[in-house]
Amino acid sequence: MKKVLLVMLLAVAVFAVGCKKSDINQSGDAASASSGKNVSGTTANGNNYAAGVSSRGEYEASLNLKVVNFDFDKYDLTDTAVAILKANAVYLLATPGVKILVEGHTDDRGTVEYNLALGQRRADAVRNFYIQLGVAANRIATISFGKEKPVNPAANEEAWAANRRAETKLAVSAK
Protein backbone atom coordinates (compact mmCIF):
# COMPACT_ATOMS: atom_id res chain seq x y z
CA MET A 1 0.00 0.00 0.00
CA LYS A 2 2.85 2.40 0.85
CA LYS A 3 4.51 1.67 -2.49
CA VAL A 4 1.31 2.43 -4.38
CA LEU A 5 0.89 5.73 -2.51
CA LEU A 6 4.53 6.64 -3.18
CA VAL A 7 4.12 5.89 -6.90
CA MET A 8 0.94 7.99 -7.06
CA LEU A 9 2.61 10.92 -5.28
CA LEU A 10 5.58 10.67 -7.63
CA ALA A 11 3.23 10.68 -10.64
CA VAL A 12 1.48 13.82 -9.37
CA ALA A 13 4.84 15.52 -8.81
CA VAL A 14 5.96 14.65 -12.35
CA PHE A 15 2.69 16.05 -13.67
CA ALA A 16 3.06 19.32 -11.75
CA VAL A 17 6.56 19.81 -13.15
CA GLY A 18 5.85 18.67 -16.69
CA CYS A 19 2.34 19.90 -17.42
CA LYS A 20 1.89 20.58 -21.13
CA LYS A 21 -0.78 20.39 -23.79
CA SER A 22 -0.64 16.60 -23.91
CA ASP A 23 -2.06 16.52 -20.37
CA ILE A 24 -5.60 16.38 -21.68
CA ASN A 25 -8.16 15.10 -19.25
CA GLN A 26 -11.87 14.40 -19.46
CA SER A 27 -12.35 13.63 -15.81
CA GLY A 28 -12.27 16.98 -14.08
CA ASP A 29 -9.23 15.92 -12.09
CA ALA A 30 -6.24 18.25 -12.10
CA ALA A 31 -3.81 15.35 -12.40
CA SER A 32 -3.43 13.76 -15.82
CA ALA A 33 -1.04 11.74 -17.89
CA SER A 34 2.05 13.43 -19.31
CA SER A 35 3.29 10.81 -21.72
CA GLY A 36 2.78 12.87 -24.87
CA LYS A 37 0.87 9.98 -26.45
CA ASN A 38 -2.81 9.19 -26.61
CA VAL A 39 -4.19 9.72 -23.14
CA SER A 40 -6.17 6.88 -21.68
CA GLY A 41 -6.31 5.52 -18.18
CA THR A 42 -7.40 6.35 -14.67
CA THR A 43 -6.38 9.10 -12.27
CA ALA A 44 -5.36 8.44 -8.68
CA ASN A 45 -8.95 9.02 -7.55
CA GLY A 46 -10.50 6.73 -10.15
CA ASN A 47 -11.61 9.19 -12.84
CA ASN A 48 -11.13 8.26 -16.50
CA TYR A 49 -9.00 10.17 -18.99
CA ALA A 50 -10.28 11.07 -22.43
CA ALA A 51 -9.43 8.16 -24.65
CA GLY A 52 -7.91 8.80 -28.05
CA VAL A 53 -6.96 12.45 -27.52
CA SER A 54 -3.43 13.05 -28.71
CA SER A 55 -0.85 15.74 -28.11
CA ARG A 56 -0.35 16.71 -31.75
CA GLY A 57 -2.34 19.94 -31.42
CA GLU A 58 -5.49 18.49 -32.95
CA TYR A 59 -7.77 21.19 -31.52
CA GLU A 60 -8.20 24.72 -32.84
CA ALA A 61 -10.28 27.78 -32.07
CA SER A 62 -13.45 28.28 -34.08
CA LEU A 63 -15.27 31.48 -34.96
CA ASN A 64 -18.46 29.65 -33.90
CA LEU A 65 -17.25 29.19 -30.30
CA LYS A 66 -16.68 32.17 -28.03
CA VAL A 67 -14.35 32.45 -25.03
CA VAL A 68 -15.77 32.94 -21.54
CA ASN A 69 -14.05 34.94 -18.82
CA PHE A 70 -14.01 34.54 -15.05
CA ASP A 71 -13.74 36.82 -12.06
CA PHE A 72 -10.55 36.88 -9.99
CA ASP A 73 -9.96 33.62 -8.10
CA LYS A 74 -13.35 32.24 -9.25
CA TYR A 75 -14.55 29.41 -11.42
CA ASP A 76 -18.30 29.98 -11.22
CA LEU A 77 -20.01 31.05 -14.42
CA THR A 78 -21.19 34.66 -14.66
CA ASP A 79 -24.45 35.60 -16.38
CA THR A 80 -22.39 36.72 -19.39
CA ALA A 81 -20.53 33.41 -19.48
CA VAL A 82 -23.81 31.46 -19.29
CA ALA A 83 -25.19 33.37 -22.28
CA ILE A 84 -22.02 32.74 -24.30
CA LEU A 85 -21.96 29.04 -23.42
CA LYS A 86 -25.63 28.64 -24.37
CA ALA A 87 -24.82 30.09 -27.80
CA ASN A 88 -21.79 27.80 -28.06
CA ALA A 89 -23.97 24.82 -27.12
CA VAL A 90 -26.42 25.58 -29.94
CA TYR A 91 -23.53 25.16 -32.38
CA LEU A 92 -22.18 22.07 -30.59
CA LEU A 93 -25.60 20.40 -30.58
CA ALA A 94 -25.93 21.09 -34.31
CA THR A 95 -22.60 19.31 -34.92
CA PRO A 96 -22.98 16.15 -32.81
CA GLY A 97 -19.98 14.25 -34.19
CA VAL A 98 -17.44 16.91 -33.28
CA LYS A 99 -15.06 16.38 -30.35
CA ILE A 100 -14.17 19.47 -28.31
CA LEU A 101 -11.52 20.53 -25.83
CA VAL A 102 -12.18 23.04 -23.08
CA GLU A 103 -9.00 24.84 -21.99
CA GLY A 104 -8.88 26.51 -18.58
CA HIS A 105 -6.60 29.53 -18.09
CA THR A 106 -5.70 31.92 -15.26
CA ASP A 107 -3.89 35.20 -14.85
CA ASP A 108 -0.25 35.17 -13.74
CA ARG A 109 -0.87 35.77 -10.04
CA GLY A 110 -0.50 32.73 -7.79
CA THR A 111 1.64 29.61 -7.85
CA VAL A 112 1.88 27.25 -10.80
CA GLU A 113 0.12 24.50 -8.84
CA TYR A 114 -2.71 26.77 -7.67
CA ASN A 115 -3.28 28.15 -11.15
CA LEU A 116 -3.28 24.72 -12.78
CA ALA A 117 -5.94 23.58 -10.31
CA LEU A 118 -8.01 26.77 -10.80
CA GLY A 119 -7.74 26.48 -14.59
CA GLN A 120 -8.95 22.88 -14.35
CA ARG A 121 -11.94 23.93 -12.22
CA ARG A 122 -12.79 26.57 -14.84
CA ALA A 123 -12.57 24.03 -17.67
CA ASP A 124 -14.69 21.59 -15.66
CA ALA A 125 -17.33 24.26 -14.95
CA VAL A 126 -17.68 24.88 -18.69
CA ARG A 127 -17.71 21.15 -19.49
CA ASN A 128 -20.38 20.47 -16.86
CA PHE A 129 -22.54 23.31 -18.17
CA TYR A 130 -22.28 21.98 -21.72
CA ILE A 131 -23.37 18.57 -20.43
CA GLN A 132 -26.36 20.17 -18.65
CA LEU A 133 -27.30 21.74 -21.98
CA GLY A 134 -27.29 18.35 -23.72
CA VAL A 135 -23.78 18.07 -25.19
CA ALA A 136 -22.59 14.48 -24.81
CA ALA A 137 -19.96 14.12 -22.10
CA ASN A 138 -17.84 11.76 -24.19
CA ARG A 139 -17.28 14.56 -26.73
CA ILE A 140 -15.67 16.94 -24.23
CA ALA A 141 -12.08 16.77 -23.01
CA THR A 142 -10.56 19.34 -20.64
CA ILE A 143 -7.10 20.69 -19.92
CA SER A 144 -5.66 23.37 -17.67
CA PHE A 145 -2.86 25.61 -18.82
CA GLY A 146 -2.97 27.72 -15.66
CA LYS A 147 -1.01 30.89 -16.32
CA GLU A 148 1.18 29.41 -19.07
CA LYS A 149 -0.69 30.75 -22.14
CA PRO A 150 -1.78 34.34 -21.54
CA VAL A 151 -3.61 36.20 -24.31
CA ASN A 152 -2.21 39.43 -22.87
CA PRO A 153 1.19 39.22 -21.14
CA ALA A 154 0.93 42.65 -19.45
CA ALA A 155 0.69 42.88 -15.65
CA ASN A 156 -2.40 45.03 -15.17
CA GLU A 157 -6.12 44.58 -14.47
CA GLU A 158 -7.11 44.59 -18.15
CA ALA A 159 -4.59 41.85 -19.02
CA TRP A 160 -5.41 39.76 -15.95
CA ALA A 161 -9.13 39.92 -16.77
CA ALA A 162 -8.50 38.78 -20.36
CA ASN A 163 -6.31 35.89 -19.20
CA ARG A 164 -8.90 34.47 -16.75
CA ARG A 165 -10.78 32.43 -19.32
CA ALA A 166 -11.96 29.12 -20.73
CA GLU A 167 -11.68 28.43 -24.43
CA THR A 168 -13.69 25.81 -26.29
CA LYS A 169 -11.82 24.36 -29.25
CA LEU A 170 -12.86 21.94 -31.98
CA ALA A 171 -11.07 18.86 -33.20
CA VAL A 172 -9.24 19.89 -36.37
CA SER A 173 -10.91 17.16 -38.41
CA ALA A 174 -14.25 18.85 -37.64
CA LYS A 175 -13.36 22.07 -39.47
Structure overview:
Helix 3 (112-132) links the parallel strand 3 and strand 4 (140-146). The protein has one domain (2-174): OmpA-like domain (60s Ribosomal Protein L30, Chain: A), CATH 3.30.1330. The protein starts with a helix and ends with a strand. Residues 4-56 have low confidence and may be disordered. With 175 residues, the chain is α+β, with helices and mostly antiparallel strands. It has 4 helices and 5 strands, in the order H-E-E-H-E-H-E-H-E.
- Overall structural class, as computed from helix and strand content, comes to alpha+beta
Biggest sheet descriptor: 5 strands, mixed
Task: State the distance separating the first and last CA atoms.
Answer: 47 Å
Question: What is the beta-strand fraction?
Answer: 5-15%
* Model regions low in confidence, pLDDT < 50 over at least 5 residues: 4-56
Mean pLDDT: 77
- Name of the CATH first level: Alpha Beta
Helix content: 25-40%
Q: From the alpha-carbon coordinates, what is the Rg to the nearest angstrom?
A: 16 Å
Fourth-level CATH superfamily: OmpA-like domain
CATH topology title? 60s Ribosomal Protein L30, Chain: A
**What is the string of SSEs from the N terminus onward?**
HEEHEHEHE
CATH architecture: 2-Layer Sandwich
Count of β-strands = 5
Task: Count every helix, treating DSSP H or I runs of 4 or more residues as helices.
Answer: 4
Overall shape: globular
The total domain count is 1
Which key features would you list for this structure?
175 residues, alpha+beta, 60s Ribosomal Protein L30, Chain: A, five-stranded mixed beta sheet, 4 helices, 5 strands, 14% strand, globular
